[in-house]
Please model this.
Amino acid sequence: MKRPSIGLTFLVAGVAFVAVACASMQAKSPAETVDARQKMMKENGAAWKAVQDNAKAGNWAAVATAADTLSKNAARIPGLFPAGSMTPDSKAKPEIWQKWSEFEASAKKMETEGARLSALAKAGNAQAANDIIKDFGRNACGSCHGPFRVPPPQK
Model:
């Protein structure tokens, strides 16, 4: 029977070391996490505005690009809400972690709706794309913002 080579042992140990090092380097403070998710949410706001403006202008390629951004960002949402990532600047409600599966489902819904909108816009199907746009804010964004985000102050 052959014994594994020392080189193979070092290779496996090295890969494990690098994986642990990378994982520990990615750990962020709560303030960094809140900052990252607020930055992404502002990006979503800009993408949503681009969807609305370009849909009105009939620029379906731009709608598709912005909707794709919304979909991809939605897939990242749960990862930006690790337990313990609250700060005074956070607008997240504790219900996120109390109802985690519902929170994940809301993010998945936005991901799915964004992907559907992107596909329809790429295909130039203005009527179907507009049907999604009409309810996207309420059905996709609002499914999370309502139950899981502190409402902005009334002006």
